[in-house]
Structure formats: C-alpha cells, structure tokens
C-alpha cells in the first residue's frame, strides 16, 4: 500500500514509455555501430586496393599516373 504509487511515476524504469525509450535508443546505437563497421570495412577495402595498385606500379604493370589520381582521392576521403 505504501509504495504502490511509485510505479505510476514518469521516471519509473518499468513504465511502458520508459521501456520504449530505452529500446529506441538501443536501436539507434545498434544502427550507429553498423554504420561505423560499414565505414571501416569500406576504408579497409579502399586501402587494400590502393596498396595493390602501388605494388602494380612498383612491378611496372601500370603507369604511375594511375596511382597518383587514386592517391588524391584516398587522401581526400580521410
């Protein structure tokens, strides 16, 4: 009887509104992590492609001008 009113307070952790707020924030956080992971993966792929072209230039398979254009893009995206 004495503490029954606490569950009706707006700050109560068991209220449906607060549970929904927490769930929404968790979903936003998960989405943020997915975007960060996707960005990291993309950057790794770009770096790998650049390093491969760099090796091709060193081996004489492609001209150095192809590498220079790529490097400018690579530096801008950092």
TrEMBL record:
UniProt key word Metal-binding: no
UniProt-annotated location(s): Nucleus
GO annotation, cellular component aspect: U2-type spliceosomal complex
GO biological process, one term: mRNA splicing, via spliceosome
Span of domain CBF1-interacting co-repressor CIR N-terminal: 10-46
Name of a matching Pfam family: Cir_N
Highest taxon of source: Eukaryota
Key words of the record: Coiled coil, mRNA processing, mRNA splicing, Nucleus, Spliceosome
Protein family membership: Belongs to the CWC25 family.
Record's protein name: CBF1-interacting co-repressor CIR N-terminal domain-containing protein
Species this protein is from: Ichthyophthirius multifiliis (White spot disease agent)
């Amino acid at each position: 009887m004495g503490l029954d009113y606490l569950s009706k307070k707006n700050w109560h952790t068991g209220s449906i509104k607060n549970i929904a707020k927490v769930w929404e924030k968790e979903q936003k956080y998960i989405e943020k992590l997915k975007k960060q992971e996707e960005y990291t993966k993309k950057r790794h792929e770009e770096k790998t492609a650049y390093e491969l072209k760099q090796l091709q230039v060193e081996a004489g398979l492609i001209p150095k001008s192809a590498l220079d254009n790529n490097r400018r893009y690579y530096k801008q995206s950092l």
